[in-house]
Amino acid sequence: MTVKEYNCTVDKYADSLYRFIKSSIKDEDRANDIVQDSYEKLWRHVTEIDFNVAKAWLFSTAYNNMIDIIRKEQRFTSISINLHNNCIYESQYSDLNEILHSALERLPEHQKIPILLRDYEGYSYKEISEITGQTESQVKINIYRGRMALKSYIGKIETII
Question: 89 and 20, same structural domain?
Fold first, then answer.
């Protein structure tokens, strides 16, 4: 990859890479750090990586870095997870974006990440499998199960609107 192609990857993919990571960890500073680390690693391997695979390589690197950070934090802090499925329906509440993000937060990481990559970023099943390290059929299963969990949490759209 040339320097010009590297700069092109920054222009094309930095924003979507940041959105993907930020939607997963909800911390702007950490998301910026992960994106920066991913581009630094790309720069160190710029001669070895072809421009055509740079996007998948960046997302895979960022995803793996994010998972490492999450695992490291889980070792140092005790995380209590609220497993109660308290669904509150207000007849006049219509902030669909907030409801969707709340529902996404309830999903386990192995379902949330493929859904974000597929529905938010538009990746194919094959690309998602390369990024996450799951098989293509496991990606499809996780997306299906995640969507079913979202559907059961949100309920009928008529009750929200």
Answer: no
> Which two tokens mark 120?
């938010």
DSSP 48: T
C-alpha span between 98 and 132 (Å, rounded):
26
Same-domain status, 46 and 120:
no
Helix 125-132 with 136-154: angle, nearest 10 deg: 100
Per-residue CA distances from 109 to 66, 74, 144, 145 (Å): 11, 13, 14, 12
Exposed, middle or buried: residue 29 (CB in 10 Å: 0-12, 13-18, 19+)? exposed
Q: Which pTM was predicted?
A: 0.52
Q: What CATH number should be reported for the domain holding residue 94?
A: 1.10.10.10
Per-residue pLDDT tens over the stretch 10-31? 888 888 888 888 887 878 888 8
